[in-house]
Design goal:
Elements: E1 12-13, E2 16-17, H1 19-30, H2 46-54, H3 58-65, H4 71-81, H5 87-98, H6 107-116, H7 128-135
Antiparallel strand pairs: 1-2
């Protein structure tokens, strides 16, 4: 289990799932406090999906985050530099992200990650968000 002060991917900033978690990772990495396990996926995976959705460049976002704005200010910057998604776009984004790993191309990766973390028996973990929350101690084992 990882021990790091990252938000759940299910926590919203400006109505968006995952965005706040990505900001947490960027901030911790900039301070040298992000555990090594997280470094390989910086700007990849869900980070990449999020910046693609917002139509911004990850490296530009990193530089903006280093300027110390609030989450909301950073999101407004993303909207001004990239795009401001509609309410429908945000709904679709949230539903897409919330279900990643459940009967899609990420399912095998989720199974592997559960196995590597000793959670193969956890039938309550059906999505990547649930796995992240379990791995970081926010989703206790019901058994």
């Amino acid at each position: 289990m990882a021990t790091v002060a990252l938000r759940s991917p299910s926590e919203k900033v400006g109505g968006l799932f995952y965005f706040g978690r990505m900001l947490d990772k960027i901030r911790l990495h900039a301070k040298g406090e992000l555990p090594q396990d997280y470094h390989a996926n910086l700007g990849k995976g869900f980070d990449e999906k999020c910046v693609t959705f917002l139509r911004i460049d990850y490296d530009q976002l990193v530089e903006r985050v280093k300027q110390d704005g609030s989450d909301e200010e950073t999101l407004q910057w993303c909207f001004s530099v990239g795009r401001k998604p509609s309410e429908d776009d945000i709904y679709i984004w949230n539903e897409f992200m919330r279900k990643r790993g459940w009967n899609d191309e990420v399912s095998e990766t989720l199974k592997r990650r559960k196995r590597e973390a000793g959670m193969s028996d956890r039938s309550d973990i059906q999505t990547a968000f649930q796995f992240i929350d379990a791995d970081e101690g926010r989703l206790p084992d019901p058994g």
